[in-house]
Amino acid sequence: MMPENLPQDRGLDQAWLSATVAAALDEDLGGRPGRDVTTQATISSSVRVKGDVVVRGDGVLAGIDVVAEVLSQVARRLGLDEPTVELLAADGDRVAAGTAVARIEGAGH
Known about the structure:
By secondary structure, the protein is an alpha+beta fold. Helix content is 37%, strand content 21%. It is built from four helices and five strands. The strands form two sheets. A three-stranded antiparallel beta sheet has the order 1-5-3, covered by helices on one side.
C-alpha cells in the first residue's frame, strides 16, 4: 500500500520558490540589475531569441517549474518583457539525453 499525500504530489510552494529564486539572484547579481556586456555590444535590443532547455543525460526530470520562475524574475529585474516558457515535459518524466524539456522565447537582452 502506497502512503498518501507524498511531498512530491503537492508541488512546489510558489511563495517559497519565488523567495528562493530572488535570494539566489540577489547573490548572483549583487541585488542590482546586471547585463552581459558582450550581448549588449553584439545583439540589437529589439532582437527576440528562442531556445530549448535540453537535458544532458538520461534521467528523471525534477524542478522544471523553476525554469519559468527564474526567467520571470530575471526579466523583471532587467526591465524586459516576460519571456514565454513552454514546458515540454513534467516533473517525474523519464527523459533521454538530448530531449528538449522546455522552449523559451524572449528579449535578446
